[in-house]
From TrEMBL:
Protein's organism: Microtus ochrogaster (Prairie vole)
Recorded GO CC terms: plasma membrane
Name of this chain's protein: Olfactory receptor
Residue ranges of domain G-protein coupled receptors family 1 profile in the record: 39-285
Gene from which this protein is expressed: LOC101982520
Family: Belongs to the G-protein coupled receptor 1 family.
Amino acid sequence: MIHNNSVTDFILFGLTQDPEKQKAVFGVFLILYLMTLMGNFLIVVTIKISQTLGSPMYFFLFYLSFADACFSTTTAPRLIVDSLSKKKTITYNECMTQVFAAHFFGCMEIFVLILMAFDRYVAICKPLRYTTIMSQRICGVLVILAWVGSCIHSSAQLFLALRLPFCGPNVIDHYFCDLQPLLKLACMDTYVINLLVVSNSGAICMVSFILLLISYIIILYSLRNHSAEGRRKALSTCTSHFIVVVIFFGPCIFIYTRPPTTFPVDKMVAVFYTIGTPLLNPLIYTLRNVEVKNAMKKLWCYKV
């Protein structure tokens, strides 16, 4: 509804307007979302209860799975519900809340991935000092810093979104509220705000990705001095981490580090990092990690 030259709610265009395709969207994304929740819930509960998964790597994996479940929940439920709704409206306040939540949990995932890479770096390159550097207290402080950093980032994004005046139209060509589609609807010159978005979200994505690449290059270089068995185990763990980094950062960099232009593929790219990545993470970490698989078998077989 548009009232007094200001927009009080928005209409989400969604992935498609075709009624038959919308039914398919409902079925497919409902299954994907439930699988995401189940997979991440299994990892969270297994790490919390299991006595064998007490190392810093699993401490950080716990928070990655938690962030994944929350990140997916910020976008997937509305996409699922809207696919069967005739009126896909979202109020202004709900839209701003979604902007904050999506960036908060997305940024949290980035910071946790950096912490996991740092943990692998210390474990492989500084093995004798590992228990001192990655003590329980330090790991707790690092996670708190990740929460604070995520809050600062998402608050900055929310501040930019709240600065945008909307006079109509109010149709967001997306399936959730984000700054890029909102900038298209603002009745003002958005060049400066877009620069701020790129320098905030874009810089976090690019700098974090480069840091992670450098850390993995250093880790791979240092493995030359390890035994064959040590190299195999370290490569297995680091490969899982690197796969997650690529599938998450690739779409994010594509979306947040470019001028204010939109492409038809934008929504599908967003689906990949908001819904696809949270689903793939638990699969990657469980299928490629013997310790997690064994802990799950022992825990859940015992419970059953």
